[in-house]
């Protein structure tokens, strides 16, 4: 049974890769990262979402430097020492994608992202699957019109929801985000599949979490791992 679950997770990861291979999606940006002064320029990576990308661990504590946007920055700077990389975090704790879409032009597009990361699914459970789709598509379409590269994130887990089950509300949101990635040919960092694979492989979800639905640094590192595949 364990091996069957692993096969299913592998199939999910394969089936929902973007149209372009992960290693190719940000090729132009990776070239920019390698340029030296004075030919280089500042690269803006914008993270838009709720409390997890905002850095909340055990509320109200915000561990900014241990959250995945800054773990991504740390690894990128190790890989690209000449790059000037701006991490811009527009995330707000407790927010869902409806609120995020409402302030998208004023708070996100104004920063002219080179890459935009969207992470709202954990809080979109109260919004509902259909309404969430409308808001995600609105943000995706606005970003694409501005010629912005996008990486969508499936949800990080909630300890109240069994990761070994395959049709929970978080599974439904994850599947919808995978489908949006495929429809719009944008990037996908499949956090939910990464956490699920850890648990099905025998890992302990508690060891990845700081409280019920907030990852700890180890959990944030797992999310960062999915993102960093685009920069290899």
A few lines on this structure:
This protein is α/β, with parallel strands linked by helices.
Structure overview:
- The chain is an alpha/beta fold and 232 residues long.
- It has one domain: SGNH hydrolase (Rossmann fold, 3-Layer(aba) Sandwich).
- 46% of the residues lie in helices and 14% in strands.
- The chain is built from 11 helices and 7 strands.
- It has helices spanning 2-15, 22-25, 27-33, 51-54, 68-79, 97-102, 104-107, 129-145, 169-184, 191-200, 217-228; strands at residues 42-49, 84-89, 115-119, 149-153, 187-189, 209-211, 214-215.
- It has a 5-stranded parallel β-sheet with strand order 2-1-3-4-5, with helices on both faces. It has a two-stranded antiparallel sheet with strand order 6-7.
- Strand 3, helix 8 and strand 4 (149-153) form a beta-alpha-beta unit.
- Helix 1 packs antiparallel against helix 10, helix 5 (68-79) packs across helix 11 and helix 8 (129-145) runs parallel beside helix 9.
- The protein is globular, with a radius of gyration of 17 Å.
- The two termini are 33 Å apart.
């Amino acid at each position: 049974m364990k091996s069957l679950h692993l096969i299913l997770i592998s199939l999910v990861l394969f089936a929902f890769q973007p149209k372009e291979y992960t290693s190719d999606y940000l090729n132009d940006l990776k070239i920019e990262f390698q340029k030296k002064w004075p030919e280089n320029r500042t690269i803006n990576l914008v993270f838009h979402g709720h409390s997890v990308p905002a850095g909340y661990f055990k509320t109200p504590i915000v561990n900014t430097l241990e959250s995945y946007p800054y773990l991504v920055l740390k690894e990128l700077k190790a890989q690209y020492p000449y790059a000037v990389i701006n991490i811009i975090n527009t995330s707000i704790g407790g927010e869902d994608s409806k609120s995020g879409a409402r302030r998208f032009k004023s708070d996100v597009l104004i920063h002219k992202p080179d890459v935009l990361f969207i992470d709202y699914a954990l809080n979109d459970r109260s919004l509902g699957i259909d309404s969430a789709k409308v808001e995600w598509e609105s943000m995706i379409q606005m970003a694409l019109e501005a010629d912005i590269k996008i990486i969508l994130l499936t949800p990080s887990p909630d300890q109240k929801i069994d990761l070994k089950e395959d049709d929970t509300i978080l599974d439904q949101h994850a599947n919808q985000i995978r489908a949006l990635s495929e429809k719009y040919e944008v990037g996908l960092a499949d956090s939910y599949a990464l956490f699920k694979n850890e648990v099905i492989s025998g890992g302990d979800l508690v060891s990845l979490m700081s409280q019920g639905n907030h990852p700890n640094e180890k959990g944030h590192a797992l999310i960062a791992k999915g993102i960093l595949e685009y920069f290899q």
